[in-house]
Amino acid sequence: MPGLAIRRRSLLTGLAAAVSGSPTSRTKAQYSMPTIRIGVLWDRSGTGAVTSGLDQVVAARLAVDDFGQFSRGYPIDLVDAEFQRRPDQAEDIARQWFEHDGVAVIVDLPGTEAPVRVQNLARANNRTIMNTGSFNAALTGVACSPTATHWLD
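Structure (tokenized):
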């Protein structure tokens, strides 16, 4: 599956960049977070099923395995959730992950409104998102954030 290899390689590169540049990894000494948590926020309904879904979760797990279970001595943990094309649910999941579960970076985020909401929440919480599933121009326009990466391949 050549297409899967390219997507997997892209996701691996992006995850490594996101984790190494995330606010959590830069401030470990101050906050000493024992585990780097990566959240995959996905959707398998509607058009999101083509670019998102369980395939992205599997690719992220493979990327963590390829990168290693540890980054700079810290264990890497992967969590995932489906937001069912509901922007309010995506925002609630992201809020829970950022504010209570210690997630450092969220990846995937298909759709149009949900990624913007999660990106705004990430900015407010000084957390990172790597949007790999949305074609919404607002992500790099009016809603642009220094804590976000918009990555499409």
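Residues 22-29 have pLDDT under 50 and may be disordered. Residues 30 and 54 are 35 Å apart (CA to CA).
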